[in-house]
Amino acid sequence: MRSLKSIVIAALLITATSSVVAQSKVAHINVQQLLADMPDMKSAQAELKKLETTYKADIEASVAELQKKFVTYQNEANSKTAGENKARADELQAAERNIASAEQAALQELQKKQQELFAPISDKAKAAIEKVAAAQGFDYVIDASPGLGLIVASGSDILADVKRELGF
Questions:
Q1: How far apart are CA 130 and CA 144, in angstroms?
Q2: How far apart are CA 67 and CA 167, in angstroms?
Q3: For FRET with 110, which of 23, 45, 135, 145 sits at 20 to 30 Å CA-CA?
Q4: Domain 25-166 CATH class label
Q5: In this structure, are residues 38 and 119 in contact, taking their beta carbons and an 8 Å threshold?
Q6: Considering Cα of 96, then 98, then 104, then 109, what sign does the dihedral take?
Q7: Is residue 55 within 8 Å of residue 106, measured between CB atoms?
């Protein structure tokens, strides 16, 4: 009798759980595509590219200057003392370290700027997705961006609706 009661309770729980799952509405959206299509993202990427170009030009100028010094020092090495050549070699090594340090600093600045620019855009997209999902009664919205593991996307795609919500 006790096992029959356990079986009935288990069956009721399974039925209740499956009806809750069946009532959930699920949609999907390619968040990568949404972000790529957002005008704000395009202007942020352009700003980031401009900053990257500036850093790259500065570093390339430093490398060119270092190469010029190296050639000059190499051509004059025979006419200089061992002490002078050692000092010049130390100077070149210090310049190489400075360039490597500048490259690292530039990379960190670019990453910081990217986060600074992209975070509000991502937040804006998330808010629009949440608004559209709530308006259309979806309980879950799954990111359908390539490579994230979504295998079947036969539910509602809300990308167009979210783009409309964002005004493009």
A1: 15
A2: 51
A3: 145
A4: alpha beta
A5: no
A6: negative
A7: yes
Flag whether pLDDT at 6 surpasses 80: no
- Nearby residues of 113 by Cβ (< 8 Å), 6 or more positions away: 47, 48, 51
CA nearest neighbour of 150 among 29, 21, 25: 29
Contacts of 29 (CB under 8 A, 6+ apart): 129, 141, 142, 143, 144, 157, 158, 159, 162
Q: The pTM is what?
A: 0.69
Tokens at residue 114, please? 């990217």
- DSSP string over 59-104: HHHHHHHHHHHHHHHHHHGGGS-HHHHHHHHHHHHHHHHHHHHHHH
Q: For residues 117 and 48, is the Cβ–Cβ distance under 8 A?
A: yes
What sign for the dihedral angle of Cα 29, 31, 34, 38? positive
Instruction: For the beta carbon of residue 46, count every other beta carbon within 10 angstroms.
Output: 10
- What confidence tens digit (pLDDT) does each residue in 46-69 have? 999 999 999 999 999 999 999 999
CB 168 within 8 A of CB 124: no
